[in-house]
Amino acid sequence: MEHQSNFRLGLFILFALSLGAILLVGLGSGRWWQSKLTLETYFNESVKGLDIGSKVRYRGVAVGEVSAISFTYTRYEDELPNSQRQQYVLVEAHLDDTLFGKNAQGETQQAALNREIAKGLRVKLAPQGLTGTSYLEIDYEPAPFNQPLPFSWQPEHLYIPSTNSTVNQLIGNAQELLAKLQRVDFEKTISLLNQTLMTANQKLDEIPAKTIGQEASQLLRTINRMPLTQIASEGSLLLVEVRESNQALKALLEQTELKSASADLASAAHSAKVLLGDPALASAVHRLDAITLRLDQLSAQGDIQQIIDNLSNASSNLKSLSEKANQRPSSLLFSTQPKPYIPPQP
């Protein structure tokens, strides 16, 4: 009986272990059998803190892990002498196959990556807190910090260029600043600064501060003696007058007579334009020019002056004849003047 109970217990344990293995395989098979992408990149700096199994993040999201860390010359430049080898650190990582989406028909995954690389996609070493460990960060970097490393081989796997880590960028900027500071001639700079301060002191000493203070005090006293209240009141009255003048001008501009005057002026201008464009006016002006030209020609020939002289003489003769007719009308009929009548004497 005891032997049969142990047998059943053993069967139950085997069944439980088998069920657990089946569940474990079923739950993890999707991850185990999921296809991976192999990515490689090169660093020209220390990768201290990065180990196999370190996370790879794309814009902060975990997308894979580091699978291998070595040197580029062990794979691509093994036949070259040490003096000609690139001392780059080769880092390989396994990434999810769905990271970069599906490619266009006939396009390779590297070609799709090259488009993103042209936009600034880079891999850099990022510290993970204060523990001293690091991980790989895939992100887009601005142009000054994303210059890829030069190399002459063809990568075996997908390739994304690397960029200096944030710490190295800070160190590089600090070193560049120190180099610039070393090129600065501090003694000459301090000498020029002292000379500038001495010149400024001399110029300040030359300024008549006492006279300026007295003139400022006098100006303040003059301002205090000014009738500011009266000036303010007159200014207010002036503003009121300006406002009233503005209102009167606005009312004048809004009168219908003024508005119609502009229309009448436009109508008169249109009429004058039509009159000037009339061919009859042009013909009249042409005839007037011809008459004036003819008068000028007659005046130049002397005929007008002779006619005027003859008319003047005829007028004088007519006047003399008229006066003679008024005095002796009979002279118009008889050649000689009749004798005066003498009445007979008784």
Summarize this structure as a short list of keywords or feature phrases.
346 residues; alpha/beta; 7 strands; 55% helix; 14% strand; elongated
Explained architecture:
The chain has nine helices and seven strands; from the N terminus they run H-E-E-E-E-H-E-E-E-H-H-H-H-H-H-H. The chain has 346 residues and is of the alpha/beta class. Among the domains are: 32-177, no CATH class; 232-260. A seven-stranded mixed beta sheet has the order 5-6-2-3-4-1-7. A hairpin with a 2-residue loop joins strand 2 and strand 3 (61-71).
TL;DR?
Helix content is 55%, strand content 14%. By secondary structure, the chain is of the alpha/beta class.
Topology:
Blueprint: H1 2-32, E1 36-43, E2 55-58, E3 61-71, E4 89-96, H2 109-118, E5 121-127, E6 134-140, E7 158-159, H3 166-182, H4 186-206, H5 209-225, H6 228-253, H7 256-276, H8 279-301, H9 303-327
Parallel strand pairs: 1-7, 2-6
Antiparallel strand pairs: 1-4, 2-3, 3-4, 5-6
Biggest sheet character: 7 strands, mixed
- The stretches of 5 or more residues where confidence is low (pLDDT under 50) are 28-32
**Residue share in helix:** 55-70%
Rg, alpha carbons? 60 Å
Shape call: elongated
Enumerate how many helices there are, as a single number. Answer: 9
- The whole-number mean of residue pLDDT values reads 77
Order of helices and strands: HEEEEHEEEHHHHHHH
Distance between the termini: 228 Å
Structural class label: alpha/beta
- Strand residue content: 5-15%
Number of strands: 7
Strand order, biggest sheet?
5-6-2-3-4-1-7
